[in-house]
Amino acid sequence: MKDVMAMLQLKCPETGEPVDIRDVAPRIALLRRYSAALWVKWIPCPHCGDTHRWSSGHWVSALEALADSPDATRVLVEGESATALP
Length: 86
Fold this sequence. Notes:
Layout: E1 6-11, E2 18-24, H1 26-31, E3 40-44, E4 51-55, H2 56-68, E5 74-78, E6 81-85
Parallel strand pairs: 1-5
Antiparallel strand pairs: 1-2, 3-4, 5-6
């Protein structure tokens, strides 16, 4: 597996622009595919000035998408779904 970093992002519901969360390597996605811990963080948005919810459910969805597409350079999370993008 290539050691490519991918940016996990939320999609701003107001503007549709991506909001960077963090870089993650595909190998981390495979190691942390499922998490039992439940948590919520609020991410300040540079596009609309509001804060957006980032949760353990978003994290798992993003890691699953990345594990399925290890060459992705970013993973966009919108609602409860995540899309791996080139």
